[in-house]
């Protein structure tokens, strides 16, 4: 196939497709045998999409007359889909490292919250920060996520709790969408906490009557494009009734429902999400058996966050039960001031050790299923013809090293690629020049 193309990856020891037949997601059975090609190559076209995947000699013959902007010899290496982080809070100001000592001394999440820490500490600093300050720290965080293999990241607002600051955060996310080589799914999370001086009902009314109409207006004008609506459905925060009202109002303006539920207390959030047609629900440490059944039936993804359970010493989400019941299980880092983790490989490792997932299940959860949780599994999450050329190349002959090694990914990951363009290259791999 003659012509010019963006990228050729050739001679990979293992090419981990994850999916090979256009699956939207993988359940437990599908994840048991991930699609994988030995001694394989792939081509990414000038449009940033994968043009061909196959055995190295077949691709070599098929593209014998073609030219490429970049060729990478992957001999002895593994190629995987770019990782998808399905839950992050990466736009904020104000460091909460001091709270870690409080947590280690036994203070609960809600005790820190009531002492003036937690979300309200971050809200105060985020409101004071300029848009430029927020963008610069956000950009740095995204770059760290990308170096750890994430090529599509869900990014929430939620540290404003007033219209002005929530919009400031969403503008920062929009700016990164337009200017950075990384995929972003943006989430309005104005119902992250009840603002000081308001009741939950007053906050709910403000969101429905003021915030969401403004988001609809900005979407129509092309200024801000938000993908998801999120609410922290929790005892002492937003109850089931308020959560229902906000999520439905968000859905009515075209937002996907993707919210926090059943984290600290059983709230029947999973049942509500399944009823409303939620794309995904996160946390679920306290989910009921009925909620698990409802999510499986509704094809509502469970975004599990092993870092949160680990750092807050919470009960681990019931990943095994969910998988056995037919729930679509995805993973996220929950990066935020309370769970400071940029690395999806570390998230996968924790999921395997603490939530008893297999390595295959964890990789599916951090690729195709996380993409499904964001409504993007038609374009992301696997290495298939027609999908976006988002890829990770690791310096190992077996892909499992990405999960097996706990930390130290700067030595393992050689390249991170978005739309066929190298966006991170390990310094031992030479210069970033194309040829």
TrEMBL record:
Its cofactor is Fe(3+). It catalyses: 4-imidazolone-5-propanoate + H2O = N-formimidoyl-L-glutamate. It holds the Pfam family Amidohydro_1. One of its GO terms (cellular component) is cytoplasm. Keywords: Histidine metabolism, Hydrolase, Iron, Metal-binding, Zinc. GO terms for biological process: L-histidine catabolic process to glutamate and formamide; L-histidine catabolic process to glutamate and formate. InterPro entries: Amidohydro-rel, HutI, Metal-dep_hydrolase_composite, Metal_Hydrolase. Pathway: Amino-acid degradation; L-histidine degradation into L-glutamate; N-formimidoyl-L-glutamate from L-histidine: step 3/3. GO terms for molecular function: imidazolonepropionase activity; metal ion binding. Residues 79-423 form the Amidohydrolase-related domain. Its EC number is 3.5.2.7. Belongs to the metallo-dependent hydrolases superfamily. HutI family. This is Probable imidazolonepropionase. It comes from Oceanites oceanicus.
């Amino acid at each position: 196939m003659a012509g010019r193309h963006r990228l050729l990856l050739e001679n990979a020891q293992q090419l981990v497709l994850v999916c090979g037949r256009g699956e939207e997601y993988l359940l437990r059975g599908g994840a048991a045998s991930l699609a994988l090609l030995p001694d394989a190559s792939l081509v990414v076209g000038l449009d940033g999409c994968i043009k061909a995947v196959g055995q190295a000699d077949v691709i070599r013959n098929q593209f014998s007359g073609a030219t490429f902007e970049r060729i990478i010899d992957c001999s002895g290496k593994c190629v995987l889909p770019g990782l998808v982080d399905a839950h992050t809070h990466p736009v904020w100001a104000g460091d909460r490292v001091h709270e870690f000592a409080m947590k280690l001394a036994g203070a609960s999440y809600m005790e820190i919250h009531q002492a003036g820490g937690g979300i309200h500490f971050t809200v105060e600093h985020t409101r004071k920060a300029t848009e430029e300050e927020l963008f610069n720290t956000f950009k740095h965080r995204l770059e760290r996520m990308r170096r750890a293999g994430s090529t599509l990241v869900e990014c929430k607002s939620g540290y404003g709790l007033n219209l002005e600051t929530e919009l400031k955060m969403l503008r920062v996310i929009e700016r990164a969408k337009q200017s950075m080589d990384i995929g972003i799914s943006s989430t309005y999370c104005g119902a992250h906490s009840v603002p000081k001086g308001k009741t939950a009902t007053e906050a709910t009314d403000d969101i429905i009557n003021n915030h969401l109409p403004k988001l609809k207006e900005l979407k129509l004008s092309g200024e801000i494009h938000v993908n998801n609506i999120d609410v922290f459905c929790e005892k002492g925060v937003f109850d089931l009734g308020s959560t229902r009202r906000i999520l439905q109002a968000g859905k009515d303006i075209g937002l996907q429902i993707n919210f926090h539920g059943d984290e600290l207390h059983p709230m029947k959030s999973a049942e509500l999400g399944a009823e409303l047609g939620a794309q995904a629900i996160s946390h679920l440490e306290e989910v009921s058996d009925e909620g698990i059944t409802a999510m499986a039936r509704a094809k509502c993804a469970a975004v599990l966050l092993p870092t949160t359970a680990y750092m807050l010493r919470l009960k681990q989400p019931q990943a095994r039960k969910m998988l056995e019941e037919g729930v679509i299980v995805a993973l996220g880092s929950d990066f935020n001031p309370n769970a400071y983790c940029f690395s999806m490989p570390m998230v996968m490792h924790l999921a395997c050790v603490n939530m008893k997932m297999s390595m295959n299940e964890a990789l599916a959860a951090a690729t195709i299923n996380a993409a499904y949780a964001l409504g993007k599994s038609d374009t992301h999450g696997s290495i298939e013809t027609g999908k976006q050329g988002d890829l990770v190349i690791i310096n190992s002959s077996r892909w499992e090293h990405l999960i097996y090694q706990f930390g130290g990914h700067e030595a393992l990951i050689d390249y991170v690629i978005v739309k066929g363009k190298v966006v991170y290259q390990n310094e031992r791999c030479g210069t970033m020049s194309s040829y």
